[in-house]
Design a protein that fits this description.
The complex is a heterodimer of chains A (284) and B (344).
Chain A lengths: L1 H22 L5 H27 L6 H33 L3 H6 L4 H29 L12 H27 L7 H13 L11 H7 L3 H14 L12 H33 L9
Helix pairs in contact in A: 1-5, 2-3, 2-5, 3-5, 3-6, 3-7, 3-9, 5-6, 6-9, 6-10, 9-10
Chain B lengths: L4 E10 L3 H9 L7 E11 L4 E5 L6 H8 L7 E6 L2 E2 L4 H5 L2 E5 L11 H11 L4 H14 L15 H13 L5 E5 L7 H17 L4 E6 L2 H7 L2 E6 L2 E6 L1 H6 L6 E7 L14 E9 L4 E8 L5 H10 L6 E4 L4 H9 L14
Parallel strand pairs in B: 3-8, 3-9, 6-7, 7-8
Antiparallel strand pairs in B: 1-2, 1-4, 4-5, 9-10, 11-13, 11-14, 12-13
Helix pairs in contact in B: 4-5, 4-6
Classes of the chains: A mainly alpha (284), B alpha/beta (344).
């Protein structure tokens, strides 16, 4: 048992290192870091302009801080979902290594989780700089006290678990689809962007969409992060919930997401080995 | 006795895409399932280097994919180390590894050493053991100078050597080698073969299943060979026994001027069991490899050639080879690669 756990841990770290190597291979480390910071920062600038044009309010308005934090944090969702979708196509058709990875006894889910962790770490740098830029450039007043750190950390970790689970599930779908299917990850991320209130509160959406938003872990994740950083609720329909209740809802929606995603991975693996899609080539 | 590998009535079919299948059925032109393997029964003993010999599309790779858990069988059973690949693939994966040839696999950003180390970690090999094994194999395959080179900078041969080490470094109980020397030049192919033979002699309890369409490779390396064509195993025995099944004085190589017709000049001769034509356009000649039903049939063969205007330029009686055994069983030669690639 200990031996198996050790192998799983080492495989997780190894696939994470591989992910980092593949992610950052196109530039030297300095240029890569600049890219990781500059890209989200410019995204934030665009958001400021959009906010001003749409609402007519300045960046110092309280609503802007909520929009800014949600948008910055949601980068993790977009990058990890998109990154893990690409992993399958790259491993299968560019590097031609997917079948060897799949054959390894460590388990495909562990490998994908490791690759997702690398993407998470790479993106986190951009998220941190964007959050800092909100304070330094746009004058957002964060209120993260020492006592808020456990709450913030717990919410952050649960959110990352949900993101990784969903990323693994989308990678599983990519396993049985052609290369053209890589847009799926982007599409799914966009749906979550809308339904979890990353920018606009979900209360403005039709009722059925709000209902969907209320079972998504990202809705509670973003709400928890906003509350710990800004100390004010954002989504009106969740305002009656205490911080602890938000965290509790985040926990169970994450647990359900993990179960569903793992089941999807198993089903996709079974379909892939039934139909011989593990080493298919679709880059014709 | 527990076999290392055992297949029982193994069958694998491939279906057209569901939408296309429905459409074809609707317009009245249904396409039958493509049969890749049909009732394949093979047994491999522990410690054996077993070969699957057959032309492209014969079903060799499909067998390896099923045995290595990359593909499920449509029917029948496949057991690896006594474990059913369909029922307990995780246990199978802990015992096997695979190397394929003729591809450009590898993470270009990683060095040779990093790639090998990475896979050793995925298989739970302790770091010190993995490093020691990898170093020994890198040296044995003359990759030392390229060990810290990124995979993207490697030649095809170097990359295949790295993949060979990736397969062996995990010290698998059963190793699947799918055309491991495909596309390699003579020297590197020889190095790879020598490495495999040496490994199995040093690890007599390990089993290797090798697929190839190089006759001489199968002949020189394998303890036993199964000849496979169109998804069926036609014969399975030692190379010596397969050759022995052919009577002496029945195999001839006849050289005639370039024969441009698609039908052999010896077509429909009862005395001829099978014939393979090899055109050598640059020399303006065609080589006919003829297997006769009986020893005395050669006179009627030369008569027929004379009547068809194919003047005999030279004629040589040959000792039966594995290629002849294959020709005898399959009825045609391999599309390529009869002994080239430096197998002899």
């Amino acid at each position: 048992m200990i031996n198996r756990l050790s192998t799983t841990y080492r495989s997780l770290v190894t696939s994470g290192r591989l992910g980092w190597a593949v992610e950052s291979n196109w530039a030297d480390p300095f240029v890569f870091m600049i890219y990781q910071i500059v890209r989200p920062l410019f995204g934030a600038f665009i958001l400021v302009v959009m906010f001003k044009v749409v609402t007519g309010q300045p960046a110092s308005a309280p609503a802007f801080a909520q929009v800014y934090v949600g948008n910055a944090m949601f980068m993790l969702v977009v990058q990890v979902l998109f990154g893990l979708g690409i992993v399958i196509f790259e491993d299968r058709e560019r590097f031609e290594m997917l079948r060897y990875i799949y054959l390894a006894p460590v388990g495909f889910g562990v490998y994908l989780t490791g690759r997702g962790l690398a993407k998470t770490i790479a993106t986190t740098a951009g998220v941190v700089f964007t959050i800092l830029a909100g304070w330094l450039i746009f004058g957002i007043k964060y209120d993260l006290g020492f006592g808020d750190i456990p709450y913030f950390t717990a919410a952050m970790l649960l959110g990352i678990v949900a993101i990784l689970a969903l990323g693994v599930a989308l990678a599983a779908v990519a396993m049985v689809t052609s290369r053209e299917g890589f847009g799926l990850s982007e599409g799914v991320a966009s749906v979550f962007y809308l339904l979890s209130g990353a920018v606009f509160t979900i209360d403005i959406l039709p009722r059925w969409m709000v209902s969907i938003g209320h079972v998504l872990p990202f809705t509670y994740w973003l709400e928890a992060l906003r509350r710990s950083l800004l100390h004010t609720p954002y989504i009106g329909s969740l305002s009656h919930l205490s911080d602890a209740q938000i965290l509790l809802r985040l926990s169970w929606t994450t647990a359900v997401t993990v179960i569903i995603c793992w089941a999807l991975l198993s089903a996709a693996e079974h379909y892939a080995v039934s139909s011989g899609k593990l080493d298919q080539r679709t880059d014709h | 006795m527990q076999w290392s590998i055992e297949t029982r009535n193994l069958r694998r079919t491939f279906r057209d895409r569901p939408v296309r299948r429905l459409f074809r059925r609707a317009v009245g032109t249904p396409v039958p399932d493509k049969v890749a393997l049909d009732s394949v029964n093979v047994t491999v003993r522990p410690g054996e280097l077993f070969g699957l010999l057959g032309p492209n599309g014969a079903g060799k790779t499909t067998i390896i994919k099923i045995l290595s858990t990359l593909l499920l069988p449509s029917a029948g059973e496949a057991l690896v180390d006594g474990i059913d690949v369909a029922k307990d693939p995780d246990s199978v994966r802990r015992r096997v590894n695979m190397v394929s040839g003729g591809e450009h696999s590898g993470y270009g950003i990683l060095t040779v050493r990093e790639t090998i180390w990475m896979f050793s970690q995925f298989y739970g090999v302790p770091t010190k053991v993995a490093k020691k094994r990898a170093d020994a194999m890198i040296e044995r395959l003359n990759l030392t100078e390229s060990a810290d080179t990124k995979t993207s900078k490697l030649s095809t041969g170097m990359r295949q050597k790295m993949n060979i080490i990736r397969g062996f470094v995990t010290d698998p109980k059963i190793l699947f080698l799918d055309e491991p020397t495909l596309g390699l030049d003579v020297g590197i192919a020889r190095e790879v073969r020598a490495f495999v033979s040496e490994w199995i002699s040093e690890h007599p309890e390990r089993t290797v299943l090798l697929t190839t369409h190089y006759m001489a490779e199968a002949d020189s390396m394998c303890d036993r060979v199964a000849i496979i064509d169109q998804g069926r195993v036609l014969a399975c025995d030692t190379p010596a026994n397969l050759k022995r099944d052919l009577a002496p004085d029945c195999v001839y190589q006849i050289e005639v001027p370039l024969w441009t017709e698609t039908i052999s000049p010896l077509d429909q001769m009862p005395v001829v069991r099978s014939v393979a034509m090899e055109h050598r356009g640059d020399q303006g000649r065609t080589h006919l490899r003829v297997i006769l039903e009986e020893e005395g049939g050669i006179a009627s063969v030369t008569d027929r050639l004379a009547k068809r205007g194919a003047r005999v330029l030279s004629m040589t009686r040959l000792e039966p080879s594995l290629e002849d055994a294959f020709l005898n069983l399959v009825g045609h030669g391999l599309s390529s690669g009869n002994g080239e690639n430096g197998a002899r």
